[in-house]
């Protein structure tokens, strides 16, 4: 089972949308009437944040009567979440729950699509997503990509060693840095040393320095196909990741280059999932 966001996050989402109560429901005088809310998929969808949407209604005082699990793929017309209770509770949770479901399930669905395309070409390839999610949404975004079958590339700066040219610029360039790789490995023996290259020439120099992973940014699939063969000849043990501009349209081409890992951000951006809502007495 995927991790669940704590109730503190649910409270924050609710406070954003209902900071002082629901004026419309209150003025209409319908808040105490009993009702039901039902969320239904309108398209083929990989679900995410159903558990958090359920917590929204529990927080509002409603009773959840149906909740499918994040990561499940459903076709159109499936009830994915339902709750019953006072109309005031259902209206208070309606949009917060829907936004969570649609945005997270949209990311999860795009992720599953890319993984399916990549693994048709290379069943062993790993798909990772960057930390380029919209600020404030990391917990939801990471749950969504994991619901889709991917893993985080990095959850943040504190958990991994990834060297960019913006680092080596402070060390007089790439080659002086490469002389420190053995020292870096000794200082952090439990971590992989990942170094990014922006050209074939840089990639081959980095490969010879015995790093653990070489990340190649923004090379075309044709260029990368040739380079991967060269890298394997220099250092068969090094893992190779491709990054930069990878999306559903070119995933298969990048998977066919022979890399071990695809690193991408594209799943974070796109149309939310289309989920229907029925709220009635």
List the helices and strands and how they pair.
Elements: H1 7-17, H2 23-28, E1 34-41, E2 45-46, H3 50-60, E3 63-67, E4 73-74, E5 79-86, H4 87-121, E6 126-129, H5 138-147, E7 151-152, E8 161-163, H6 165-168, H7 174-178, H8 181-187, E9 193-197, H9 200-208, E10 213-217, H10 221-234, E11 239-243, H11 251-255, E12 261-264, E13 275-280
Parallel strand pairs: 6-7, 6-12, 8-9, 9-10, 10-11, 11-12
Antiparallel strand pairs: 1-5, 1-13, 2-4, 3-5
Task: Explain what the structure shows.
It is elongated and about 75 Å long. The strands form three sheets. The protein has a seven-stranded parallel β-sheet with strand order 7-6-12-11-10-9-8. Strands 3-5-1-13 form a four-stranded antiparallel β-sheet, covered by helices on one side. The two termini are 33 Å apart. It folds into two domains: 7-113 and 270-280, Aldehyde Oxidoreductase, domain 3, CATH 3.90.1170; 120-267, Aldolase class I (TIM Barrel, Alpha-Beta Barrel). The protein contains eleven helices and 13 strands. Helix content is 42%, strand content 21%. α3 runs antiparallel to α4 and α9 (200-208) runs parallel beside α10. With 281 residues, the protein is of the alpha/beta class.
């Amino acid at each position: 089972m995927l991790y669940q966001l704590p109730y503190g996050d649910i409270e924050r989402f609710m406070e954003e949308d209902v900071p002082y109560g629901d004026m419309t429901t209150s003025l209409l005088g319908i808040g105490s009437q009993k009702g039901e809310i039902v969320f239904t998929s309108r398209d083929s969808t990989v679900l995410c944040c159903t558990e958090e949407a359920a917590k929204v209604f529990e927080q509002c005082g409603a009773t959840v009567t149906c909740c499918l699990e994040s990561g499940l793929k459903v076709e159109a017309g499936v009830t994915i979440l339902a709750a019953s209770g006072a109309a005031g509770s259902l209206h208070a949770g309606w949009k917060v729950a829907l936004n969570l479901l649609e945005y997270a399930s949209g990311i999860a669905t795009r992720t599953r699509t890319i993984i399916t395309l990549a693994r048709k070409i290379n069943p062993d390839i790993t798909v990772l997503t960057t930390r380029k999610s919209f600020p404030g949404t990391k917990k939801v975004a990471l749950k969504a990509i994991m619901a889709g079958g991917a893993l985080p590339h990095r959850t943040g700066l504190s958990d991994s060693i990834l060297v960019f040219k913006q680092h080596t610029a402070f060390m007089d360039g790439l080659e002086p840095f490469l002389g420190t790789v053995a020292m870096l490995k000794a200082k952090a023996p439990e971590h992989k040393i990942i170094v990014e290259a922006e050209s074939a020439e840089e990639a081959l120099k980095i490969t010879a320095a015995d790093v653990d992973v070489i990340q190649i940014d923004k090379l075309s699939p044709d260029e990368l196909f040739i380079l991967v063969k060269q890298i394997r000849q220099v250092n068969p043990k090094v893992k190779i990741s491709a990054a930069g501009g990878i999306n559903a349209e070119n995933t298969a081409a990048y998977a066919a280059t022979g890399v071990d890992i695809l690193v991408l951000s594209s799943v974070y951006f796109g149309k939310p999932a289309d989920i229907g809502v029925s709220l009635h007495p």
